[in-house]
Specification:
The chain has 391 residues and is an alpha+beta fold. It has helices at residues 8-13, 40-48, 55-62, 70-74, 164-182, 194-204, 233-241, 251-271, 278-291, 301-311, 340-351, 365-368, 378-388, and strands at 15-16, 19-20, 66-68, 87-94, 113-121, 128-132, 137-141, 144-145, 154-155, 158-161, 188-192, 207-211, 215-217, 222-224, 227-231, 292-295, 319-323, 326-329, 332-338, 375-377. The chain has 13 helices and 20 strands. Helix 2 crosses helix 10 and helix 3 runs parallel beside helix 9 (278-291). The protein is globular, with a radius of gyration of 20 Å.
Length: 391
């Protein structure tokens, strides 16, 4: 569905905090960097807030950011651009093993999306919803302009795993696939690679998580005993990558770990006090802006600062986490397929700026994969301890 045009006062109303809450891209292509981990949006937004007062700092950080003109690549054949003040961001990760990521495995000829989350900020900018899309979901991938291994040729539409979209057509194809899947226009795009994610966590000072069972997974380089840990970058990366160390070994259990980690990361960003330390603020901003790739409407410090102002009031308790309703594919237990009647409820709630109803995920395979007895962040662990103590 082609996007509508809005001018005059309506267009002005669509801008909030220095960026448009929904809208058309204007800046030309400035390049791209393969990359993610789930929480780059909140780190990048939080650390640049207040960091633009000195000119040399501004231009240094501004030059760190890589941008991709998604809007120009996709044209007008997109879901309607609704100017209600809400915002939808595709946060995407890649399993690229190129460059500094080579230590995490063999480069098999092209990156795919390792993690995908649609982040919806509501109209009032005081609540958010995150919808995780399992990478092994079989979807109808639309035709895309090829990228990388496709040598720039158009890749025809076909039934394929969701994570193949990034491999064949880069960020633009990933966005196009999500928009086709959801009917929701993505206003922005963020990604970060393995090495960038690790640097972010280390610069932040680690993230505190509590594990109620030991987690050991040689594939993700993770070995944690039960207890409370301040995870460094390497451990955090292992936690959000592990799929054999928890639950049924599927991507669905890993998604729940990623969602728990995202909440803990948000709490850490809010509590670390970077704004009272100019050096800490600069170090974190420098790392964050070097680690992320954004769409061209966010590829400057000023625009990221605008988003930070929009998001700064949202705490972890204000975020609803949802996994796209799926069931295991009867023809291949290593793949999942959407439960259409339930996914429609999820995307309808996002479109109408409402919380996702519980009925949308009831009975989903993702809803059944409960890793709550394995890992909790600090805030989740305290009520459970009190309950077990009979208080």
């Amino acid at each position: 569905m082609a996007g509508d045009s809005y001018e005059g006062d309506t267009a002005a109303a669509r801008r909030s905090g220095g960026i448009r809450a929904s809208g058309r891209r204007r800046k030309p292509l400035s390049g791209r960097r393969r990359a993610v981990r789930a929480a780059a949006w909140t780190v990048a937004g939080a650390v640049v807030l207040g960091g633009t007062s000195l000119g040399f700092v501004y231009f240094k950080l501004d030059g760190n950011i890589s941008g991709v003109d998604i809007n120009a690549a996709l044209g007008t054949d997109r879901p309607q651009d609704v100017p209600n003040g809400s915002m939808d961001i595709l946060v995407l990760g890649s399993d690229s093993r190129a460059g500094a990521n080579a230590k995490y495995g063999k480069d098999e000829g092209g990156a795919r999306s390792d993690t995908a989350m649609v982040l919806h900020i509501n109209e009032k900018h005081d609540k958010a919803s995150v919808v995780s899309i399992p990478r092994d979901t079989i979807v109808q991938r639309p035709s895309c302009e090829g990228d990388g291994s496709a040598d720039g040729r158009t890749v025809p539409a076909q039934q394929a795993m969701f994570n193949s979209a990034y491999k064949v057509g880069g960020p633009a194809c990933a966005v196009k696939t999500v928009e086709s899947l959801s009917g929701v226009r993505m206003d922005h795009y963020l990604e970060v690679d393995f090495a960038g994610f690790q640097r972010l966590i280390n610069t932040l000072g680690g993230v505190e998580m509590t594990t109620h069972k030991a987690i050991k997974d040689k594939d993700s380089h993770l070995n944690l005993k039960a207890g409370t840990h301040r995870l460094n970058g390497e451990q955090s990366l292992g936690l959000v990558r592990t799929r054999h160390g928890v639950g049924d070994g599927s991507d669905l259990g890993r998604i729940q770990l990623q969602q728990a980690f995202l909440k803990a990361l948000i709490d850490q960003v809010n509590s670390v006090g970077v704004f009272s330390s100019p050096k800490k603020l600069y170090d974190l901003a420098d790392t964050a802006t070097s680690a992320i790739t954004t769409d061209s409407d966010l590829d400057s410090v000023g625009k990221l600062t605008g988003m930070a102002k929009m998001l700064k009031g949202i705490k972890s308790d204000d975020i609803q986490m949802t996994t796209l309703p799926v069931q295991y594919d009867p023809q291949d237990p290593n793949r999942v397929v959407q439960i259409d009647s339930k996914t429609e409820k999820v995307w309808s709630a996002i479109k109408h700026d409402k919380p996702v109803p519980k009925s949308a995920t009831k009975g989903s395979a993702g809803d059944k994969t409960d890793i709550g007895d394995v890992v909790r962040d600090k805030a989740q662990a305290a009520p459970r301890a009190e309950k077990q103590a009979g208080r």
